[in-house]
Amino acid sequence: MQTYVYLLVFLHIADGCKLSDYSRITIDASSGGSAVLPCSCADPQATVSNLRWQYRKENVVGGFNDIYPTDETQRFKSRIQLVNAAAPGNFSLHISHLTAEDEGLYQCQDKNQTSNYRLVTLQVKFTATVSTPRPGSGIKTTPSTPRPGSGSKTTPSTPRPVTPKPNGDSLSTPEAGKSLPFIPFAVVTVIILQIIVAVVYCTPQKKMLAEFTTAQLMEMEV
Ligand SMILES: *[C@@H]1O[C@H](CO)[C@@H](O)[C@H](O)[C@H]1NC(C)=O
Ligand SMILES: *[C@@H]1O[C@H](CO)[C@@H](O)[C@H](O)[C@H]1NC(C)=O
């Protein structure tokens, strides 16, 4: 069994470049970002002289379209390049400025030996950076937020009378508290002023009385 596997591997190496182990690869990327779709010869020394990348949408009837080296779709031209051009057996494809439209099935294939290929599924997810512009640009979502906002405005309006009421109560209670102590304070002040006036008015009389009494006493002594 091991010798059989070894023989198979040897035969494939002998064949040249083997692009796939036939297990499909799924690459996750985010919109606006970039992705590297891996494809390389099992033997790093091997290469494919006539390699192409193809693309087709998943769950859509229709064949593959070439995207590299020629772009039949006209969609990828300026956005794709082989990453590791230095390694002759590495045909990994870099795609930048991804959009949801780029989702689908990618295939790197030896044009001269079409059974030698690898399939890569690309999934493009929306990121927070893309979802944030969307509500910003999407006027439909912004009205939906104002609507709850206006609803919240009406709800505040109902709390507003409620909040003023406590405010009014709190204001009226301090006012009553202020006015209530103010009245006795004024009364006390008036009484104190009256006492002062009375004292001031009486003191000369007392003085006179005192002088009079002292004078009397002086007379008495004399
Ligand atoms: C091929 O190149 C890409 C990008 O440089 C790298 O990530 C990948 O590991 C390479 N594949 C092999 C088998 O060396
Ligand atoms: C691949 O096929 C083309 C013609 O389609 C031919 O010119 C070329 O020599 C072939 N390359 C190899 C390595 O067989």
Automatic annotation (TrEMBL):
<keyword id="KW-0812">Transmembrane</keyword>
<feature type="signal peptide">
    <location>
        <begin position="1"/>
        <end position="16"/>
    </location>
</feature>
<dbReference type="InterPro" id="IPR007110">
    <property type="entry name" value="Ig-like_dom"/>
</dbReference>
<dbReference type="InterPro" id="IPR051713">
    <property type="entry name" value="T-cell_Activation_Regulation"/>
</dbReference>
<dbReference type="Pfam" id="PF07686">
    <property type="entry name" value="V-set"/>
</dbReference>
<feature type="compositionally biased region" description="Polar residues">
    <location>
        <begin position="131"/>
        <end position="144"/>
    </location>
</feature>
<keyword id="KW-0325">Glycoprotein</keyword>
<dbReference type="InterPro" id="IPR003599">
    <property type="entry name" value="Ig_sub"/>
</dbReference>
<feature type="transmembrane region" description="Helical">
    <location>
        <begin position="182"/>
        <end position="202"/>
    </location>
</feature>
<keyword id="KW-0472">Membrane</keyword>
<feature type="domain" description="Ig-like">
    <location>
        <begin position="29"/>
        <end position="121"/>
    </location>
</feature>
<dbReference type="GO" id="GO:0071222">
    <property type="term" value="P:cellular response to lipopolysaccharide"/>
</dbReference>
<dbReference type="InterPro" id="IPR013783">
    <property type="entry name" value="Ig-like_fold"/>
</dbReference>
<keyword id="KW-1003">Cell membrane</keyword>
<dbReference type="GO" id="GO:0009897">
    <property type="term" value="C:external side of plasma membrane"/>
</dbReference>
<dbReference type="GO" id="GO:0031295">
    <property type="term" value="P:T cell costimulation"/>
</dbReference>
<keyword id="KW-0732">Signal</keyword>
<feature type="region of interest" description="Disordered">
    <location>
        <begin position="131"/>
        <end position="175"/>
    </location>
</feature>
<keyword id="KW-0393">Immunoglobulin domain</keyword>
<keyword id="KW-1015">Disulfide bond</keyword>
<dbReference type="GO" id="GO:0042102">
    <property type="term" value="P:positive regulation of T cell proliferation"/>
</dbReference>
<protein>
    <recommendedName>
        <fullName>Ig-like domain-containing protein</fullName>
    </recommendedName>
</protein>
<dbReference type="GO" id="GO:0007166">
    <property type="term" value="P:cell surface receptor signaling pathway"/>
</dbReference>
<keyword id="KW-0675">Receptor</keyword>
<dbReference type="InterPro" id="IPR013106">
    <property type="entry name" value="Ig_V-set"/>
</dbReference>
<dbReference type="GO" id="GO:0042130">
    <property type="term" value="P:negative regulation of T cell proliferation"/>
</dbReference>
<dbReference type="GO" id="GO:0006955">
    <property type="term" value="P:immune response"/>
</dbReference>
<keyword id="KW-1133">Transmembrane helix</keyword>
<dbReference type="InterPro" id="IPR036179">
    <property type="entry name" value="Ig-like_dom_sf"/>
</dbReference>
